[in-house]
């Protein structure tokens, strides 16, 4: 099992990708999930790519983007640009959101249009050997397990997958463990984060979380929040291969990421090994599942 940090964590920091990669390697991460805004602003000629990152023992599990599914005139160009970023960083996964309205607020015709747009996007990324991962998230058609499953059936394309944001699954009223079991064949990546109290979930609203002056109240380490991550971590420990991205939006970035990384590794180390797991002889690393 690989655990990655997200460059979106450093959206308001004056820090280079070199510094992030160096710290990630020394701390014990296996990957760096690249926010599309950062991917677009890393000059292609600077020599930083998947091979450069591999020198740190790191890979890119996913490019986190926001495709304009409701703007057909912009879609093709945006997808092609994102595919170039994916090729540069040698990742097959491209994250997007399933629209800008929740399932209960989306009419049949509007949903059909979004489904068609997703199917077309899937076809385009599949031609380059990539997958499109829709994120489980409020205010989208993947805001509940039922709607997410319906959307997968409606799009009906093998290149459509899921970025399983556990907190938002819980926010939508579903049990993350049960939802994970249902969606497992389609899950290409996990996002982990937590909140002190359910009533504080609005802190993750885009208008707030992307604002440098926005509130960070309630954002806490994984095992200090209201959502109980222990059952989900134990469940994922049985998976022979997956990637968890720690999506931290709070302060004290380095200490928080290090704490959550070690928390997950400790939990995984205590879990019964999967029969297909392999261990490493490197004494500096916890055996990977």
TrEMBL record:
Signal peptide: none annotated. It comes from Roseobacter cerasinus. SUPFAM superfamilies: Xylose isomerase-like. This is 3-dehydroshikimate dehydratase. It holds the Pfam family AP_endonuc_2. Residues 22-251 form the Xylose isomerase-like TIM barrel domain. Residues 268-289 are annotated as: Disordered. PANTHER family: HYDROXYPYRUVATE ISOMERASE, XYLOSE ISOMERASE-LIKE TIM BARREL DOMAIN-CONTAINING PROTEIN. It comes from the Bacteria.
């Amino acid at each position: 099992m690989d655990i990655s940090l997200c460059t979106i964590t450093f959206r308001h920091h004056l820090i280079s990708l070199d510094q992030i990669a160096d710290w990630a390697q020394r701390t014990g991460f296996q990957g760096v999930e690249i926010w599309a805004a950062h991917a677009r602003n890393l000059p292609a000629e600077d020599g930083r790519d998947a091979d450069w990152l591999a020198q740190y023992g790191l890979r890119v599990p996913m490019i986190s983007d926001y495709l304009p599914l409701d703007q057909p005139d912009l879609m093709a160009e945006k997808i092609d640009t994102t595919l170039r970023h994916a090729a540069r960083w040698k990742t097959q996964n491209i994250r997007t959101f399933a629209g800008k309205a929740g399932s209960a607020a989306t009419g049949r015709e509007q949903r059909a249009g979004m489904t068609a747009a997703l199917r077309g996007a899937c076809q385009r990324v599949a031609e380059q050997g990539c997958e499109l991962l829709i994120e489980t998230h409020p205010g989208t058609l993947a805001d509940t397990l039922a709607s997410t499953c319906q959307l997968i059936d409606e799009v009906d394309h093998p290149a459509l997958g899921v970025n399983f944001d556990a907190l938002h699954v819980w926010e939508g009223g579903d049990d993350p463990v049960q939802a994970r079991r249902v969606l497992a064949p389609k899950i290409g990546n996990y996002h982990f984060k937590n909140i002190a109290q359910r009533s504080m979930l609005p802190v993750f609203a885009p208008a707030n979380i992307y604002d440098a002056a926005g509130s960070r109240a309630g954002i806490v380490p994984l095992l200090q929040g209201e959502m109980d991550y222990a059952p989900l971590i134990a469940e994922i420990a049985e998976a022979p291969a997956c990637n968890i991205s720690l999506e931290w939006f709070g302060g004290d970035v380095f200490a928080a990421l290090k704490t959550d990384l070690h928390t997950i590794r400790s939990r995984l180390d205590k879990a019964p090994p999967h029969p297909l797991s392999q261990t490493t002889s490197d004494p500096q690393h916890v055996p990977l599942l």
